[in-house]
């Protein structure tokens, strides 16, 4: 009898390639990648000693952790391959890319949209990057963009009405005046990263590298969804306790947060860590509508799991309708897009 | 803009896990595997020199070529891992299994049904095994069951009304009196296997092994679908030329066929090749209904591509209704199930 895997808690992007799919709505994530391309290139050129690392083999194994669905992941994987090829200008190296994401990621769409002209062998690896995914010492370069800020679950303190961390009327720590809410998020991030780095320390070969990219301020628009939910509460369409117990499980690590978890693990040296301020078309043009549709592709499944289809649809439709108002707010509260870049080397 | 891969010609098993899905209807293929388990175990024990092959590494890479959807592929991959572990009774070896099938295989269902208690790291590799799938010398054990008898396409001579190989009134070479039909199938098989062995010769490490299993007589029930199609022609529901130009692209290689293609490639030694006669519950009990439903899961997409949904549904429904008649025929024409087993070693 066929056995179904007990799903790890996970929050997949919208599947397929329809209007609100992630594959058609991942501009924010694309901007993060584009902003980091040159930095990633430099980090590889300065730190990767392939001849020493591979010794007699000609196989170079790369993974994109939390790849979701294309085209962003294809774009960055081809970039990594090209930089490594250019650095060693030989044609002997052969590349295999492992596209990793949760079991319920849409791998069918990912595989069917693989670029025909890719210069690597492609494979998919289902599973949570908070645990082991590969044999020991089998990966030479690991990459993760817009993924490690996803927590493995909502911190449990946030689910308890009696807790000091009960996040009344809000859906995230951004905007919360209650410091216990922030602490609960940080604690969960540290627990998750401990598992993440323990697994990667086993899997990455000595001398191998890892580049992590994380949005730092891009998701402050989350609270517009929160305020729409509270509108529904005020109209009597939704019970407030459902909003209070809902907390989007993303934490945006600072330089200090990342440094702390890397140093605790102690298997990687930090080659570069910095906040960058890439140009964002969406933020610069106060293009709230595209931004909100983009967040819809990211958040829809998460909302459906908690609120059901009807409330979720109402919330997203109403928030998209607020685009002009959000645009106006963006112009006044202009804040250059900001992201965290980390280049690590396995000791 | 997202680019869609131009699909290689391929004929996926029914996806998902509904009534006529391959995952719920793959008993024939299960019998093939079960019948070969002991032989595969012996072949590994007698021929695989892991310590020499892996030298200082502890990673053992396995692939199942044309894996389709579980549970059969999980069953055989766990078997391979267990046999290798038992032979070397150490716990140092780590296994990674690459589940390979065409781009349009249902990898989502495959991944979601992965056994929780598997003792290997799992990944999926989309693409045709008639071409390259992996870096050079990166696979230690390749396995393929009920897959290499699928041709990459219908031989083109069979599509030409003017050709001597025009297969009038039939949908396969089994039962055809026209020898040109058989020749066209053999020629296509040889072309496909040339590509198959060229790719595997690059990918499998020296000393690595490959075990191929192919049904030999199991699909002679194909022609019951053909006769249903001719019923529809006779009732004026279907144009005969559509039936004449339809030929199921499967060829069942004999010992001589396989020996010829392996020797032509010249990279593998044949450690064992034989026809086996495993017990078949379906054939022994003349269980035509299960058999026909099993073939439906395998053939439905192929029929839909050629005949469309309506004719395909009519054909399958009517053929299932003939189960009693087919059962009676099976009892009279009893033929023990028969399959081809090949164990090869990379020179």
TrEMBL record, chains A, B:
Keywords: Magnesium, Metal-binding, Methyltransferase, Transferase. Signal peptide: none annotated. GO terms for molecular function: metal ion binding; S-adenosylmethionine-dependent methyltransferase activity. One of its GO terms (biological process) is methylation. It holds the Pfam family Methyltransf_7. Coiled coil: none annotated. This is Loganic acid methyltransferase. It comes from Solanum tuberosum.
